[in-house]
Queue: 4 jobs
Job 1
Amino acid sequence: PPKMAQGGVLKTLQRVFRQPGMRPVVSTQPCLSLARLYSQETPSLASVDESSATGNKEVRRSTTAQGLDVHDSPDIAQSIFETVWRRLEKTNGRHNLRFPQSIVYLNGAPGSGKGTMAQYFRKELELNHISTSDLLQSPEAQEAKDSSTLVNDSDVIYALFSTLLSPQHKFGVVVDGFPRTRVQVEAIKQLQDCMSDLHKEFFHTDLSAHFPRPKFHVVMLYIGEEESVRRQMLRGEKVAIHNAQVEEAGEGNYKEHRTTDVDEDLARKRYRIFREEGYEPIRTLRSLFNYHFIAADGSIKEVRERVLREFEYQSSLELDDTTFHKLTQLPCAEDISMHFRANLVKELDEYEARSPELVDECITIIQRDFLPLIRLCQSSGKAVIRSTNDVFYERTKALRIVVAILAERGFEVSVRRGHDNLPRDVDENGRIVSYIRNYVEFEVTFPKAKR
């Protein structure tokens, strides 16, 4: 074949097929398959039969139950990615390989609620939604989905990467249902490396804004096999009821009826493929990306709350290394809040031990100046107290003591310092002479009074 040495093909095949107790047997057909895999002229492998006889075992792509998966080889996975990448470069030009700034790969067990969570990401995080199932609508792809097997890896990867290059996705996307196989897992590893190379290549050019540092999140929604089968069967029942109502009414839209949602054996097969082909390989991404393992059992609200907690702080892998190193000098809000109560008690005890008279004075100020206004504003649950007491400027600890006392009693307090320019006199030229009066403004919030 063009641009391919037959000797290289043979050595690669021998390395892939050489297993304990197996004699390397190379036929013409797999040589053609591998050669086409390397060829830029035929990036898709859909038309190539990749099964070959090796003794009494059959080697087939996209399955582990049938024997050795040739795509377990890193060489094969890398070759598929390189084929897809060359085609993207040839079609779009290297300077137009502009992928989204942030990509969330949403995966999970069948029936785990990926579609529901994808809509949550779209609304709450303002990410565009890409469903890999929608990208693959060919008859061959539909047949594979109906039989609960996997669609050709090269077709999936090329379709997805081409879609990611659309300008409408530049600010971020959630990809529903990817990666699902070992090859696809390797593909996003390679994609991150290539995006990092593009980021460095164009960093000091006018195009730098189009090549951001890659920010990948991998979300795994997990449920057990029995729960997965139950949800798939329930979904099939709901679709059947809906479609029957549409049929009877003569209006409305039919919903897709999956064969795996009505056949329990196919549903279990689908789950086991997920475990073998998707779940285990995806776990290898934990050390590379922001990896979020979400228990998807429970209500939709509970799962959403788990997802929200997972995405609260992820700056360590999203910021540039130099920026993140500088920011780590500051504590996270969660760290401050976590130890607030313990620090508050310790701080008050220290003030009482070292400055008991100042603590007494602060309590008097609260009773005299704060509590009357707080009681007056109890229907709104918010009071603003402006104090001009000199103690807050003459003794800096006084401000901290007042805040600590109010917080200990259950009030939420925010503080702002300021000053007013007040007229004092008029000079001989008729100009107003002012003086500065400092103040401290306390915003105190508390539970509203019940009506």
Job 2
Amino acid sequence: MSCIHYKFRNNSKHDTIQFDGSYITVGEIKQAILGQKKMGKAPDFTLQIINAQTQEAYNDDNQLIPRNADVTVKRIPTGNKVSKSQLAAQSQSLDMYKMSNTPRPLAVTMVTNYIIIV
């Protein structure tokens, strides 16, 4: 049984992915990490796999990584979803105007790739 050792950039603890064969593709590593860490099937981020020794990023999902390699994983947001904290802040500001009798000002707020007119 072969394995790959990985860790997230901000974590000091290494985890292991076990597989059969001498090589594993970058795409298979990403799927295994998502499953092992229970990150969901359609996350709002993508994983970047980086060789821990050379700091070379593996950009192609079909690229082969040899067994016993040590890689670093970085989460990169896709930018197409609004975070829960951003939605909560928008909701709170709307609730404040509903509770007061003052007229609500017209404001344009930029949230990632979306323009929300409040």
Job 3
Amino acid sequence: MPALSPTMESGNIVSWLKAEGESIGAGDTIAQVETDKATVDFEVQDDGIVAKLLVPAGSSDLTVGTPVAVLVEEAEHVAAFKDFKPEGAPGTDSAASP
């Protein structure tokens, strides 16, 4: 989760505007994110392809720095992330038990 405002500590993914496998360009909005003050655009900085969305739309209280998506430069790299889960994510061996 990127910091989309100077005071942002966490945010909610309202909606994804790009799907896995979709090409993106610098400046494209890939998601709508609700912060403590407003709903803002999550714009990408580089060209690439959305390889994996790591959290579903509607996810809430995501701390700044939490991985939310995997972006790659080349289409042939997308398949490598099909089953990817970041370390500590729900459903991985290193995730803490509730």
Job 4
Amino acid sequence: DAQLSETDIISIAKSEYDLIFFKKLKTSYDQDTFCDFEMIFSDGRIKVHRLILAAGSSFLSDLLQDQTRDCLVFPDLTLAEGKTAVEALYTGNVIINRKSAVSLNSIERCVR
């Protein structure tokens, strides 16, 4: 049985190009550059890019097929859980610590 250290990072970035690409995506997300969509959670909302959500998650892609939709609502997820899921799509990394490990099942439902 593997034990979690204080903070573990699981990454899908495999090359230098991947790292640069994900860094640029994350910068765009952090600065709200070209954001065209919102995700709403039980205690807050974040601005995101439809294309990144659709490319990163088949579940979200299916939800985004309706072009008239301007937001997705996840009433069972907190803003912190939503940000963890979205940042995984933008960075290729999932940062897991002992606190976040408990909510990973909820996060997985958001981006599967």
